[in-house]
Amino acid sequence: MDARRASGILLHVTSLPSAYGIGDLGPAAFSFIETLARSSQRIWQVLPLGPAGYGASPYSSHSTFAGNPLLISPEPLVETGLLTPDDLSPLRELPNGFVDYARLLPRKTQVLRTAFERYRRSRSRRGTEPGIDAADVRRFRADHAEWLETYALYAALKEQHDGAAWTDWDAEFVARDPDALDRARHTLSADIDRHVFWQFLFHRQWSAVRAACHARDIRLFGDLPIYVAHDSADVWANQDLFRLDDHGHPETVAGVPPDYFSPDGQRWGNPIYRWDRMRSNGYRWWKRRMARILDRVDLVRLDHFRGFDAYWEIPADHDTAVNGAWRDGPGIAFFESLEEDLGPLPVVAEDLGIITDSVRTLRDRMDFPGMAVLQFAFDDDPSNAFLPHNYDRNLVAYTGTHDNNTLQGWWNEELHGDGRAYAERYLDLDRCDGPAHDRCLRALLRSVADRVVTPLQDVLGLGPEARMNVPGEPGGNWRWRYTPDALDEAALDRLRELTETFGRAGR
């Protein structure tokens, strides 16, 4: 893991600007990389990259291995002849300032279908193949067959069943009857090929983005949720590794217990792992999962790290998390097993919330950096671990995460009373000019924490209208995007100045 002091920006790919309804892996991604470089930033953190499921959440994906086809940029497909400018007309009608998923999904899917059909037809006409070599597609398919064939079959069957969850498919497919799956591979071969092709496009475009980052000494920082969605290729294909009943439904689900902020706790609904079975096969699925994300990114935020020490298990037929119970997680043996096969893990432990001594011990024995969020620091207690003067070096410090309000929204709407008075004293606002978000950023960048990551919204001083996610809200999340004219050069220059002043530019 790169040990130099560094800073970076948190911005999911969907939040990039484009003329086609959603941020993608096209020109705006490369332009943002140049923005990072000009600002002396050496980290680009993104959210999970899989095909988004319920509520368009990247944390509820249909596959932990696959890429989200909605992130495929159409511009390169025009350049290679797979699309025409006219094909993109329906996407140009979509808004620029946010993602309208209800309108985007059918239009983007149709555009990608058109690209595949044009590719498939061209392969049968010698000399007219567009700028994608079929041999490259075949090589990609062979190299990634272990997860790709399962995902492509799952995606084709899901389409055949009108988008229903896999537990509502025909019984032979729920049970993964080998003869039924073989028949499906034959009858749905064109649809399977299409999903393989889309994954190839995603892989090629993401690889180009990663190469551009590395050429600028920028590291990609990814996100790996501890749990996977029940309606996913992962659970469907590995039912024996999850606590499911005979019909594939969860017997118990994940969440967190009641606390001061949530008297009912949080019932996330993800199926619980059978850690005993995973241990007996050497954590093979988890090793494949970790290897896959490390093919894409340089650093991994491991979400809900405390669940590897102990996790909250809730009966699936309960509507709240109140009647759950703590169960032992896989612990240190799990990470040691992964490192035996994969080498030292470039992992950041998401250790927010109520963390026990045993969780800290697990984190520290693996030498994983933890996290600190400045928005959680100001409770008028100088010993608060999230205050910059209490940081240690092996830490990633944030103004806020994707789940927080923007810094400006938090300052104006959520920080009150003694906490606000303490924050004003701490940031020396009475004697120093400049907005509060600028003073917050300065406090983090000057700290001893090896890494500081700031959401782009906080660099630009945007308000709550730019918030990415409100946990617990069923709709309206994951929609925010910036427009090119929103990049305030003065704010970016200030970020560069602070980064270089406090030794985070890598020079």
How would you summarize this macromolecular structure in one to three sentences?
The chain is built from 19 helices and twelve strands. It is α/β, with parallel strands linked by helices and 507 residues long.
Describe this structure in words.
There is one protein chain. The chain is built from 19 helices and 12 strands. By secondary structure, it is of the alpha/beta class. Strand 1, helix 1 (27-38) and strand 2 (43-45) form a beta-alpha-beta unit. Helix 5 (134-143) crosses helix 6. The longest helix is centred in the middle third of the chain and has 27 residues, at 189-215. It is globular, with a radius of gyration of 23 Å. The model has no long low-confidence stretch (mean pLDDT 95).
Jot down its keywords:
507 residues, 19 helices, alpha/beta
Q: Assembly state here?
A: single chain
Q: Give me the secondary-structure category.
A: alpha/beta
- Percent strand equals 5-15%
Shape: globular
List the helices and strands and how they pair.
Elements: E1 6-10, H1 27-38, E2 43-45, H2 75-79, H3 89-92, H4 101-123, H5 134-143, H6 145-160, H7 171-174, H8 178-187, H9 189-215, E3 219-224, H10 233-237, E4 252-256, E5 266-271, H11 275-280, H12 284-294, E6 299-302, E7 310-315, E8 325-328, H13 331-342, E9 347-349, H14 357-365, E10 370-373, E11 395-398, H15 407-413, H16 417-426, H17 436-445, E12 451-455, H18 456-459, H19 489-501
Parallel strand pairs: 1-2, 1-12, 2-3, 3-6, 6-9, 10-11, 11-12
Antiparallel strand pairs: 4-5, 4-7, 7-8
Helix pairs in contact: 5-6, 6-9
